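Re: weekly structure request thread

Next one in the queue (60 aa):
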Amino acid sequence: MAHDNNGLGDKLKGAANKAKGEVKDQVGKATDNARMQADAQKDKLKGEVQDRIGEAKNRH
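Done, posted below.
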């Protein structure tokens, strides 16, 4: 992928990580797996950071 300075790539990666985190969170809750839920929170946070980086790139 070419370098994108408009932030779209970061926003897409962020959305994917947030979605992955949500799936892990739901599976972790359903199976009572605290470790999976912790991993889910990490993925959601990573996605949020990537999303904000994309937004910051869009402002410049």
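Residues 34-59 form the longest helix (26 residues). Residues 23-60 form one domain.
Next request, please.
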